[in-house]
Design brief:
Length: 323
């Protein structure tokens, strides 16, 4: 799988997810087998670039692997400026978000709302492609609603504008994350353009990954929610694609090691206060199958001190392994 001049180490990509795919999580997914990771969405509005949230999202120096940064907005000039700033800050690929279904994003005519306006889509894509020397990619949904599916039209337009890879989440904006992903639509797009196509949506395990690749003909897979609390899913899928064999479940001691390392990195990256708050959701995802009664997760979420969080995790696993 190539994007412009960049060769990915495999065909598995960690999806951009706001509030999730920060620097620590991207590094972990890459270490756990992702061929590339994409940063969480960065607004093209220059008024927010100096906020702490945006500043941390623009940290790309010394990052492992190919550095792909996602930008979102509806003004072609702002999008071009955002692309340039991120390329100058170390982004090797610029990804344009036209797939986010969130109301607060769509209200600003950004994300998947843009799919209703192909002429504006073309203006934005051309402006960004012409603004930077790095490859530009695009992420979309299959359309605004089941009655307004236009992913083939947008894909052809993207190819004409110089987009070098296209990710399709197999749902319309109206569908949000409900129902099953439309792999038929992704397959049709793949047959309609010559640029690389990345399939996204409901890829939850190695067998599903193999089936989606085979059915759609996609060049790569993008995995989002299934990696939350389970970043080793990339390793599991790659092993199955290579060998046809399933890896055994991750040993609980290794889960503990990965989780505690992740929590420490969140504390270091954000600072103890914010890092402690952000660690809560990640720990909740990690423990979904190991602590189904929620009791530990509730008590963990009440901890305000970073070192206490690590001590609580240590004690939890010691108790779990004794059972």
């Amino acid at each position: 799988m190539r994007i412009g001049q960049y060769q990915l180490k495999n065909c598995l990509i960690a999806a951009p997810m706001a509030g999730v795919t920060d620097r620590p999580f991207r590094s972990l997914c890459y270490d756990m087998g992702a061929g590339m990771t994409v940063s969480e969405m960065l607004s093209s509005n220059p008024q927010v670039w100096k906020t702490d949230k945006s500043r941390l999202r623009m940290v790309h120096s010394d990052e492992l692997g190919i550095r792909s940064v996602q930008i979102a907005g509806s003004d072609p000039a702002d999008m071009a400026a955002a692309a340039k700033i991120n390329a100058e800050s170390g982004a090797q690929i610029i990804d344009i978000n036209m797939g986010c279904p969130a109301k607060k994003v769509n209200k600003k005519l950004a994300g998947s709302a843009l799919l209703r306006y192909p002429d504006l889509v073309a203006e934005i894509l051309s402006a960004v492609v012409n603004a930077v020397d790095v490859p530009v990619t695009l992420k979309i949904r299959t359309g605004w609603s089941p009655d307004e599916r236009n992913c083939v039209e947008i894909a052809r337009l993207a190819e004409r504008c110089g987009i070098q890879a296209l990710t399709i989440h197999g749902r319309t904006r109206e569908c949000l994350f409900k129902g099953e992903a439309e792999y038929d639509s992704i397959r049709t797009v793949k047959q309609s353009v010559s640029i690389p196509i990345i399939a996204n949506g409901d890829i939850t395990d190695p067998l599903k990954a193999r089936a989606v690749l085979d059915y759609t003909g996609a060049d790569a897979l993008m995995i989002g929610r299934a990696a939350q609390g389970r970043p080793w899913i990339f390793r599991e899928i790659q092993h199955y694609l290579d060998t046809g064999e399933l890896l055994p479940p991750m040993p609980i001691a290794e889960v503990q090691q990965i989780m505690q390392m992740h929590v420490r990195e969140l504390h270091d990256f954000y600072g103890q206060g914010k890092g402690t708050r952000i660690a809560r959701k990640h720990v909740s995802w990690y423990l979904k199958e190991h602590a189904p009664d929620d009791q530990f997760r509730r008590s963990f979420n009440a901890i305000e001190d970073a070192s206490e969080q690590l001590e609580a995790l240590e004690a939890y696993f010691e108790n779990f392994l004794r059972k």
